[in-house]
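Need tokens for this chain, all 192 residues.
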Amino acid sequence: MIKIYFHLCLEGFSNCYIVGNEETKQALIIDPGAVTKEMIMQLENNKFSLEAVLITHNHKSHYRGLETLKKIYNPKVFTADYELAGDDNSVIRGDGTLKICGMNVGYLSVPGHTSDSMVYKIGQTLFTGDALTAGLAGSTNNAYAERILKANIKTKILSQNNELVLMPGHGPPSTIKAEKRFNSDLGIDLNR
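Here are the structure tokens for all 192 residues:
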């Protein structure tokens, strides 16, 4: 059984998620914007071994706590950014699947907000970083990046099962169905 724990990182108001596998007692963290006592206690009280950290993109509010985690634990870091990966050979590119903590972790390259933006799929949940939040497409620096991001959202995210839950990098959760129906940022047919 997979459990997802939400943590709000006040520096940058970003969302961090601990995903634990109750059977293997292993966990991963997505976007550690900060490391708090509550996060450490959640890992320790559940007797989770921290195996991996997944970074959705190279913005400090999504990885600021990474160095602290590496001092306490020995997680493998998965990111599309070579700078964040450091000496670790866990740079991911394109789309694919990893086996982490006894879970299949899908990853999708969704550039636009940043060139290294990744979305992760675990079970029936998509962790979208800043590519897509409830009701909004991610911010971009120019019209070209905006077109690329919106095209990627439509082909890679909104093409998924309507019931998938979206856990964004900022703001509340959503679903694919809700985004198709209510996200006016995407310019899609709202009557679907």
